[in-house]
Design a protein that fits this description.
Elements lengths: L11 H11 L23 E7 L3 E7 L5 H5 L6 E6 L15 E4 L2 H17 L4 H4 L12 H17 L1 H6 L4 E9 L2 E9 H9 L1
Antiparallel strand pairs: 1-2, 1-5, 2-3, 3-4, 5-6
């Protein structure tokens, strides 16, 4: 079930009403974040980290002006990284780009930018305000964002391998977006969700 909204919004009761209209058993999950929330067009990146425990990590990401919507719904990807599990221990910001397998061309980026603009307009945001936050030419995701992902998520996965395996978490993904200079995950899902996304 998808309920799109403008992002930073104090009127969560209205969102709950929309959830209940789609599914009477639907719930709204609220959580605290450690930084000031941003508008959904102000973020540095949206990132999805796919984990095949003991085998590899695949990272799909979209850049400035985008958020986790595009990667969690397989709408588009701007950068992709493939990291064999045995390389997690030596992974650092210095060698991270060696694992990049894809970066979007400027031509394809401009298409994704226009689709993003149309989506943000469709949920009631003003294009005169938000379009300046979405670069006209592709700008790679900055290293300080990747440092947050490496330090706070990827390295922790390696340390938690036995714990995750003991609970059956062997193939899953963690998605989210940035708040300030840090990656902020907001969902974890498994293969059943991948199947659902591909059917849409």
């Amino acid at each position: 079930m998808d309920i799109e909204n403008v992002g930073k919004n104090n009127y969560f009761y209205n969102t709950l009403i929309r959830v209940k209209e789609k599914d009477p058993l639907g719930v709204l999950v609220l959580f605290n974040i450690t930084s000031e929330p941003t508008e959904r067009y102000e973020r540095w990146a949206g990132i999805s980290v796919g984990i095949d425990l003991g085998k590899d990590v695949i990272i799909d990401a979209v850049s400035k002006g985008f958020d986790g919507r595009e990667v969690s719904k397989s709408i588009c990807t701007h950068e992709r990284y493939f990291i064999p599990w045995y390389d997690l221990r030596k992974l650092s910001i210095e060698n991270f780009k060696e694992y990049q397998t894809y970066q979007i061309s400027n031509e394809n980026y401009r298409v994704s930018r226009m689709e993003r603009i149309e989506f943000l307009k469709s949920i009631g945001l003003n294009s005169k305000v938000f379009s300046k936050y979405i670069p006209e030419e592709y700008q790679p995701i900055p290293d300080f964002i990747w440092l947050s992902v490496i330090k706070n998520l990827v390295k922790q996965l390696e340390k938690s391998e036995e714990f995750l395996a003991s609970y059956g978490f062997t193939n899953f993904a963690i998605s989210g977006h940035t708040e300030g200079i840090n990656f902020t995950p907001w969902q974890m899902f498994d293969k059943s969700r991948y199947t659902l996304i591909k059917k849409r």
